[in-house]
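Provenance

Sequences were taken from public entries as deposited. Structures were produced by running a predictor on each sequence independently, with no templates supplied. The record for ATP synthase, gamma subunit from Oenococcus oeni ATCC BAA-1163 is shown for reference.
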Amino acid sequence: MASLQDIRRRIDSTKKTSQITSAMQMVSSSKLIQIQKHTSGYLDYANHVEAIVAHLAAAHLLEHQNGSSIPFITQRPVKTTAILVITSDRGLVGGYNNQVLKRTDQIMREQKLTKENTVIFALGGKGSDYYAKRGFTIAFENRDITDVPKFWEVSDLVKEVTKQYAARKFDVLELVFNHFINRLQMMLLTNRIHP
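Predicted structure for ATP synthase, gamma subunit:
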């Protein structure tokens, strides 16, 4: 049977663990509030830009005068698919990474994608590691994305995607990511892009 001193040590240990957990919750809560402030303005802007581009593409206003269309909006037969997987660099994010990776695997099964006809672009180390271990081609990876990414942090990705699409390394791009709704809810989204 445990002595009185052992019981006191356990109680003290539990109290200290509780204090550490409380401090971690406060830090994550303040980070969340900060991120919410930064992202609220971006969502409206992104939605407007997407609507304008879709409208212009539908109206065929993005065609050259000689009749040939711009290669970045012209659909072509899909031989190779690129998937942009957005995960975290580390663990401790609950089911966030797991949901993204499961959905990506599901897309691959549904579209009968294999290692030979799939290219992976990865933001976050978990997605990159997961698909590298399974033998997929990792066309681009960035493990140093901050909580509130700046333009220069993702510009290398945009350049690489554009370069590889122009070189016909892939024909369609799928994005798989978790969209933040509120503290309790995230929505897993998949967007297919015909660049």
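The two ends are 69 Å apart (CA to CA).
The first helix runs from residue 4 to 58.
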